[in-house]
Amino acid sequence: MESMRLVGLDVHAAQTHAAVLDSVTGEVQVSKLRVSPGEIVDFLAGLGPVRAVSRVALGMGRQQASPPETPRPPDCHRQRDP
Questions:
Q1: What angle do CA 61, 43, 75 make, to 5 degrees?
Q2: Does the residue 75 lie in any domain?
Q3: CA of 50: how far to CAs of 3, 19, 57, 61, 65, in Å?
Q4: Is 69 a member of any domain?
Q5: Terminus of the chain with fewer CB atoms < 10 Å: N or C?
Q6: Residue 45 covered by a domain
């Protein structure tokens, strides 16, 4: 059985923290990524099948669940902080 990895990303300008849960083994890996946004996509692609969610810090206390330009499947919902 191929595992699905569940990924949480905390995205900031200087770095991104990623927590990856393997849904079959229960193994959790935590990474600090100091790479460009394109390289984060490469990181995710290298994990195989994934479901990912991100929290993006825009600076000055503003946050949103994911950047507006990120393509999403039609059934994906965006959370907005008040």
A1: 70
A2: no
A3: 9, 12, 22, 29, 17
A4: no
A5: C
A6: yes
- Which residues make Cβ contacts (< 8 Å) with residue 6, sequence separation at least 6? 20, 21, 23, 50, 51, 52
Specify the pTM: 0.65
Q: What is the pLDDT of residues 25-61, one digit of tens each?
A: 999 999 999 988 778 889 999 999 999 988 876 655 5
| Domain coverage including residue 17 | 5-63
Looking up residue 48, the CATH number of its domain turns out to be 3.30.420.40
- Number of compact structural domains in the chain: 1
DSSP secondary structure, the chain, as one string? -PPPEEEEEEE-SS-EEEEEEETTT--EEEEEE-S-HHHHHHHHHTTSSEEEEEEEEEETTEEESS-TTS---TT-------
